Amino acid sequence: MVHYDQLLDFTNSLGVVVVEKRFKSNAQGFCKGNKIGINKDMLTVQKACILAEEVAHFILTVGNILDQTIINNRKQELLARQWAYQCLVPLDHIIKAHKLGISGRYDLADFLEVTEEFLQASIDRYTSKYGLFLKVDERYTIHFDPLRVIEVL
User: Fold this and answer.
1) DSSP assignment of 112-124
2) Exposure on the CB side of residue 65, measured as CA atoms within 13 A
């Protein structure tokens, strides 16, 4: 699993400065140039979810995309979120959790060190991308609704 500290190390390797501070707005994070701001009034697991998306904005998006009525901005937002989902909730870690006997969304979110909301958003994105299930290899199929892993022995 990718931990908040690992994300901080990754951002540092990219030359990005991460600053935790108390925001006056309801924002949880932002990316401007090579600086990422994270609201310090969150749990570490929340910070990791926000930081992953902001790192993706640094790597993948261009310009100010705050106006989500513009289709290109929505596309860039989706791209950044998808990168964050794949970073923190990779399909192989869902299978790993299955192998360890972890079941239920709360326990899976805890295992992956993400919020339940982030986990659900990841699953929703995987469902829209792959459909109701995805055959990962000859041995595992991940069903997204309801979430479960089927293993062929």
Assistant:
1) HTS-HHHHHHHHH
2) 20
pLDDT of residue 74: 93
Structure letter (DSSP) for residue 137: S
| Integer Cα distance of 50 and 143 in angstroms | 26
Q: Which amino acid is at 51?
A: L
CB-based burial of residue 128 (10 Å sphere; 0-12 exposed, 13-18 middle, 19+ buried)?
exposed
Domain definitions of the chain by residue range: 1-88, 89-153
Reported as a single tens digit per residue, the pLDDT across 5-18 is: 999 999 999 999 99
Whether 120 has a pLDDT exceeding 90, the answer reads: yes
pTM reported for the whole predicted model: 0.92
Tokens of 77: 């937002």
Q: Measured between alpha carbons, how far is residue 115 from residues 27, 44, 84, 126 in Å?
A: 17, 10, 13, 17
Asked if 11 contacts 36 with a C-beta cutoff of 8 angstroms, the reply is: yes
CATH of the structural domain 1-88, one choice from 1.10.540.10, 1.10.10.2910, 1.10.3860.10, 1.10.730.10: 1.10.10.2910
Q: How far apart are CA 11 and CA 47, in angstroms?
A: 14
CB-based contact 12:44 (threshold 8 Å): no
